[in-house]
Amino acid sequence: MKLNGHNPVDLIINHRKLIEKVFTILVVFSLICIPMVGINYDLTKYLPDSSPSAQALDIMEDEFTYPGMGRVMLHDVTLYEAKNIKDRIADVEGVDMVMWADMTANIYGSSEFIDYDDIDDYYHEDDQSAYMDVIFEDKDSSSQTHKAVHQIEQIVGDRGLVAGSAVSDTNLGPTINKEVARVMVLAVIIIYIILTITTTSWFEPVMFLSVLGIAIIINMGSNIILGEISFLSNAVGAVLQLACSMDYSIFLLHSFTQERAQGIEPEQAMANAWRSAFSSIFASGMTTIVGFAAMCLMNFGIGPDMGVVLAKGITISLVTVLLLMPALILRFQDIVAKTKHRPFIPTQSRSMGNFAYRIRRPLFILVLLIIIPCYIAQGMANFTYGNEAVANSPGTPVYEAEQQMNAAYGKSNMMIALVPLDSSLTEKAMTDEIDDLPYVKYALSLSSVLPEGIPEDFLPENITSIMHSKNWARVIINVRSSGESDDAFKFADNIRGIVDQYYPNEQTYLVGVTPSTQDIKSIIVPDYNRVNIVSLLGVALVVALTYKALILPFVVLIPIECAIFINTALPYIYGQRTMYLGFIIVGCIQLGATIDYSILLTGNYLDARTQGDKKEAAIRAVSMSAESVMTSGMIVMTVAYGLYFMTSVEAISSLGRLIGRGAFISVIMVLFFLPMCLMIFDRFIVKPDHAERKHAKMNRIHAMKVKLPTLSALHEQRLRLHQQIRENRHARHKQTRSKWNNLLHGKGFTLPEQPDNGEDIETPETAKRTLPKRVRMRLKARLDRRKARLSDLISARKNDNDKSNTEENDNEKK
Questions:
Q1: Higher pLDDT, 342 or 1
Q2: I need a labelling partner for 518 at 20 to 30 A (CA). Which of 129, 267, 467, 524 fits?
Q3: What is d(CA 725, CA 648) in angstroms, rounded to the nearest whole number?
Q4: Whole-angstrom distance, CA of residue 665 vs CA of residue 698
């Protein structure tokens, strides 16, 4: 491919300053756009439009609003104090209604006439605690609800606890942003240490991190084209982009270093390095992009959201490394050379390769024995599917408050039934039957609270519109269960059955955390096999096209797929609770992020196979690949386990644990299991002309000379003039520093001697670089001014010395 007679690499090298300016503009623009990108924390938004919950939510937003939910528990309050606080909460802007004891009992009379057993769900006389459910006017994620939550927290103060989905959503954004920022800082520090140990320059890690930092900023800013992204994409996008694309910069810089070691000029060395490293960088990037892009095939909308964000991030990293990295390497090559340090890791030894060869058969047999049980066990773990893994994670204040409320008053799970606005008698009968269920705390509809004989038309519209719209009636149901559990699913099915019994031939809906989670589960489970198969075939296709082979891609994928099966089976073995969404995503991420290890070792095996037998090739491949594979694996593990240990949101921390553990297992499988696979399939993957083709490729690369721009005579003269001005400036500064140094140390100095005729003596050397007359006059005038200032300083110093000597003589006379 040529552009105007130039290869792309020539254009990159010759226009590197323009490329630097373009990326600077993109970074500034992206920094402006990042705060404008919306973040969504509600998984129900990603349900397909055909799902019942999505249709019900649309009706709720059109006919009523989809209300946020909150819970309040007060300590050490009398019944009347609790009533006062309840009224203050009800008056908060954004609060629709507060469900409390005064709905079912008259609390204004004497306490002797109050049956506390009837209000035991809302008030405990023995410990003087009160509980109430808060229903907001708008959804959990709205700014109005967030403001109302803050006002309720101020009203409650230290006299109680506030929890619920609206409270979780209010605190979730700041919590995630703060925790992910800490993870990024720690990851950058640890990655710098890892890269410093594995490289030979203090400045190389700075350059690697700078390039990827630019790519991450551009990716985060470009998310504005999506309008809104999920909290998972926002939390893990940057750290995964940092971990998965670090190898690209390392490949390019190391290739450049090898070319420079042969004495090649910097521009030509960069051209050779770019061409030789391009295939490795491009193949590595494309496998990762394909692995991430496979998530776009999920029916559950968060898959396409994460797939686009992550694949776009790797694409931007790839473009940044291929375009910007050459410019920075050429700009800072002197700094890299000046900051060289001794290698901290000894030169390659065969110990790792020999160990891998010795254990190849026992490990191969072990993997064959466990891989089928792991494949079966991976789908048997304790999975979560809905928002509870996002909102109420163990260790968060909201989770602790929820546990205290559950212990004192039981669990609370709000559902809303949407039924046609047909008959108030049918609505009341249905509500009463649901209210009589043992696991229902209360069921509330407009027909159930209206006194008998009073028609709905007698009530003002601002009251009736809370429960009735033009076409629909809603029934608020509070169930004694968590939002996501087997009991909750059974209760929701029973309630749905009762609703269908009263409205047999009409469309009805059940809305809430539990129904939405049931829909998510029914949609997301079939996504697993489809996404895994597509990502596997996509990566295999990229490897096949890169190496022009059919059997090799499947050999390369064997250790990675085995690592994925083992990793996803461990939650079942350990009894860990895992989010099913993370279970799907980790397969794509682990495949895309760690397939590079397998490709690298396979390439080294094929190279070594041309010079020795299978045993020697396996030992050399492991020995040559171990440092790179372990370095890349440690980087991925660092950022992933940083998410696991430093985030309190279960959805993010569990995903981090799966990715970190998967990277570790992949490193083990590639270094110790893949060599045996390569030896078994040796006859199918080794081509006799591999060495010749590789040497021919390198010869073609070195034969292509970079075309630097041809400068005009005027341009060359201008460059020489600028160079001469810089040299003169450096010489003047050096001379001035020397004179000041002598002056401060009391040695004094003399002005430089000038020729008698006041003109410079022209020599053959100076004649070749004679400056224009205007420049010479300007330099002579500047030098004269400096001489005058120096003379003034000498005179002032001499006067000060004379004055001090005179004072000393006068003192001696006295």
A1: 342
A2: 467
A3: 59
A4: 35
Mean pLDDT for all residues in the chain: 82
For residue 292, count other CB atoms closer than 10 A to its CB: 29
pLDDT for residue 455: 65
The DSSP string of 459-496 is: S-HHHHTTTB-SSEEEEEEEESS-SSSHHHHHHHHHHH
DSSP secondary structure letter of residue 3: B
Angle at 101 between CA 97 and CA 105, to 5 degrees: 120
Q: Which residues, at least 6 apart from 52, have a Cβ–Cβ distance to it below 8 Å?
A: 509, 510, 515, 519
Number of other residues whose CB lies within 10 A of the CB of residue 765: 7
- Strands 38-40 vs 228-230: parallel, antiparallel or unpaired: parallel
User: 298-323: string of b/e by CB count within 10 Å (b at 16+)?
Assistant: bbbbbbbbbbbbbbbbbbbbbebbbb
Chain centre distance of CA 146: 25
- What distance in Å separates the CA atoms of residue 87 and residue 109, rounded to the nearest whole number? 17
Q: At 39, is the secondary structure helix, strand, or coil? A: strand
Count of C-beta atoms within a 10 Å radius of residue 773: 8
Quick count: other Cβ atoms within 10 Å of Cβ 4?
6
Question: Distance between CA 493 and CA 40 in Å, rounded?
Answer: 28
CA angle 525, 526, 532 (to 5 degrees): 100
Cβ atoms 272, 259 nearer than 8 A:
yes
Q: What is the band of 433 on the pLDDT scale with cuts at 50, 70, 90?
A: very high
> Which tokens sit at 700?
């073609």
The mean pLDDT of 645-659, rounded to a whole number, is 84
Give first-to-last CA distance, the chain, whole Å: 95
Quick: pLDDT tens for 218-232: 999 999 998 889 888
Report which of 372, 348, 344, 334 is spatially closest to residue 625, judged by C-alpha positions: 348
| Cβ–Cβ under 8 Å, residues 191 and 635 | yes
Helix or strand (DSSP H, E) at 129 = strand 129-136
- CA-closest candidate to residue 168, choices 136, 141, 134: 141
Contact yes or no for 603/627 (Cβ under 8 A): no
* Rounded-to-integer distance, Cα 215 and Cα 453, Å: 69
Q: What is the pLDDT of residues 654-707, one digit of tens each?
A: 888 888 999 999 999 999 999 999 999 888 888 776 666 776 766 676 667 766
- Find where tokens 């390039």 sit: 211
Burial class (CB in 10 A: 0-12, 13-18, 19+), 2: exposed
How buried is residue 115: exposed, middle or buried, by Cβ count under 10 Å (0-12/13-18/19+)? exposed
Q: How far apart are CA 29 and CA 19, in angstroms?
A: 15
Cβ atoms within 10 A of the Cβ of 794, count?
Answer: 15
Q: Could you give the CA distance from residue 806 to residue 253 in angstroms, rounded to a whole number?
A: 68
